[in-house]
C-alpha cells in the first residue's frame, strides 16, 4: 500500500506538491483565524511552517534542499524552484501600475546601491570582529550578507576556502529567513504601504526570496513592486563584490 | 484563448532571462543580471500595448493572472526547500552578520520611507 502511494507521489511530483502546499496553506489559514484571530497573516504562517518542514527535511535527508531532498516530496523542488518562482513573479507584473513604478525609479536605484554596500560593510565588520583578517575571507563573508548567491559566487571568484564560503551562504540564508519572517511584524515601522515604499524595501532588503515572501505575507499587492527592484540585487552584488568591493577591502586590510 | 496569456507570459519570461544573461556576459560575469526584472518590464509594456489596441480579452488575462495568484503557494514551496539546517549550523557569526545587516537596512528603509510625501497615495484598491 505504502509502496503504491510512494510511487505515485514520485511519478507525479509536481501534482503531489500542489496538494501538499495547498494543505499547508489551508492549515495556516485555520491557525491564522482561530489561534491569532487574524492578527498574523495566513501566508506568514505558511512560510514559517514551510521553513520548519525544510529543517525537518534537511535533518532527515541530510541534503541542501530541505524537504525537496526526500524522494516523496521531490515535486516541492520543482514547484518552489527558480523556474516556477520566476514565472510567477513575472506574472505579478501584470498588476503593476506603470506610473507608480516610474515615480519610484531613481529611489529604487539608490536603495539597490545602498542594499549592496550596507550589508557588505556589516558583513565585513562582523567577520573582522570574529577574527578574520585576510581580504578574501572578509570580502566573501561581506558578499554573503548581500545575498546567499553573491557570497559563493564572489568566494569562488576570488578563491576563498570552502569553510568561508559555507559561512557566507549561511549568512545569506539567515538574512533571507529573517526578512521573510520579520517583515510582516515590522511593516508599520518600515512604512510599507505604497508601491514606492515596496520598491525601496526591495532594493534594501535584498534577496528575491526574502523580499517577495516578506511582502507576500504583508500585503500581496506590494509584491510586484518589491520584486521589480529586488531581481537586480543578486546581479549587482555579483558585479560589485568580486571587483570594486574586493579591491576596497584589500586596500584597507592590506593583504 | 487562455493559452495566449500564458504564452505571452512565457515569451516575456524567456526574453527577459536571455537579455539578463547577455547583460551579465557583457559585464564580464557568468550570472544573470536582472533577467526577471527585464521580463517584468516587458510584460508591463506588452500589457499596455495590447490594451491600447484592444487585443486583450478577459480570458487572455486569466492566463497570466492565474500564475500571479499562484505566487504565494510557490513561495511556500520555496520556503520548504531552504537550506535551514546549514543556516542554523553557521553559528553566531552568520547569525550576527545577518541580523546586523537586516537591522541596518531596516533602519535605512524606515528612514527613506518616512521621507515619502503623503500624496503618493496607497496602491489602487480595485486590484
3D structure, described in words:
The complex is a heterodimer of chains A (255) and B (127). Chain A has two domains: 2-80, no CATH class; 96-253, no CATH class. Helices cover 76% and strands 0% of the residues of chain A. Chain A contains 14 helices and no strands. In chain A, α7 packs across α8 (135-146) and α9 (150-158) crosses α14. Chain B is an all-alpha fold and 127 residues long. Chain B has two domains: 1-81, no CATH class; 83-117. Chain B has six helices and no strands. The mean pLDDT of chain B is 84. Chains A and B meet through α2, α3, α4, α5 and α6 of A and α1, α2, α3, α4 and α5 of B.
Q: SS-based structural class of chain A?
A: mainly alpha
Task: Figure out the total of helices of chain B.
Answer: 6
Provide the structure class of chain B: mainly alpha
Overall spatial form of chain A: globular
Instruction: Specify Rg of chain A, calculated over alpha carbons.
Output: 20 Å
Defining traits:
heterodimer; A: 255 residues; mainly alpha; 2 domains; 0% strand; globular; B: 127 residues
Short description:
The complex is a heterodimer of chains A (255) and B (127). Chain A is mainly α and 255 residues long.
Amino acid at each position: 500500500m505504502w509502496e503504491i502511494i510512494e510511487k505515485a507521489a514520485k511519478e507525479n511530483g509536481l501534482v503531489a506538491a500542489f496538494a501538499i502546499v495547498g494543505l499547508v496553506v489551508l492549515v495556516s489559514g485555520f491557525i491564522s483565524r482561530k489561534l491569532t484571530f487574524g492578527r498574523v497573516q495566513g501566508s506568514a504562517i505558511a512560510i514559517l511552517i514551510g521553513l520548519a518542514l525544510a529543517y525537518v527535511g534537511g535533518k532527515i535527508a541530510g541534503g541542501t534542499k530541505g524537504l525537496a531532498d526526500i524522494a516523496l516530496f521531490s515535486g516541492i523542488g520543482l514547484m518552489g524552484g527558480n523556474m516556477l518562482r520566476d514565472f510567477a513573479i513575472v506574472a505579478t507584473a501584470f498588476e503593476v501600475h506603470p506610473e507608480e513604478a516610474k515615480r519610484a525609479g531613481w529611489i529604487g536605484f539608490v536603495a539597490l546601491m545602498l542594499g549592496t554596500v550596507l550589508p557588505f560593510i556589516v558583513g565585513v565588520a562582523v567577520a573582522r570582529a570574529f577574527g578574520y583578517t585576510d581580504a578574501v575571507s572578509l570580502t566573501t563573508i561581506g558578499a554573503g550578507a548581500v545575498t546567499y548567491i553573491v557570497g559563493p559566487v564572489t568566494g569562488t571568484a576570488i578563491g576563498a576556502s570552502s569553510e568561508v564560503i559555507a559561512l557566507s551562504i549561511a549568512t545569506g540564508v539567515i538574512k533571507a529567513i529573517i526578512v521573510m519572517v520579520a517583515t510582516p511584524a515590522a511593516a508599520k515601522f518600515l512604512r510599507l504601504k505604497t508601491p514606492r515604499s515596496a520598491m525601496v524595501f526591495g532594493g534594501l532588503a535584498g534577496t528575491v526570496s526574502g523580499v517577495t515572501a516578506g511582502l507576500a505575507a504583508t500585503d500581496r499587492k506590494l509584491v510586484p513592486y518589491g520584486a521589480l527592484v529586488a531581481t537586480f540585487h543578486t546581479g549587482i552584488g555579483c558585479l560589485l563584490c568580486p571587483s570594486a568591493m574586493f579591491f576596497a577591502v584589500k586596500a584597507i586590510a592590506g593583504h | 484563448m487562455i493559452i495566449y496569456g500564458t504564452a505571452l507570459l512565457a515569451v516575456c519570461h524567456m526574453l527577459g532571462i536571455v537579455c539578463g544573461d547577455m547583460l551579465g556576459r557583457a559585464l564580464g560575469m557568468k550570472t544573470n543580471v536582472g533577467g526577471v526584472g527585464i521580463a517584468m518590464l516587458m510584460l508591463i509594456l506588452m500589457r499596455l500595448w495590447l490594451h491600447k489596441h484592444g487585443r486583450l480579452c478577459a480570458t487572455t488575462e486569466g492566463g497570466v493572472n492565474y500564475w500571479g495568484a499562484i505566487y504565494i503557494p510557490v513561495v511556500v514551496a520555496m520556503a520548504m526547500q531552504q537550506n535551514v539546517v546549514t543556516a542554523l549550523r553557521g553559528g553566531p557569526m552568520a547569525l550576527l552578520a545577518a541580523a546586523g545587516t537586516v537591522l541596518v537596512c531596516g533602519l535605512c528603509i524606515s528612514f527613506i520611507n518616512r521621507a515619502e510625501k503623503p500624496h503618493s497615495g496607497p496602491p489602487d484598491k480595485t486590484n
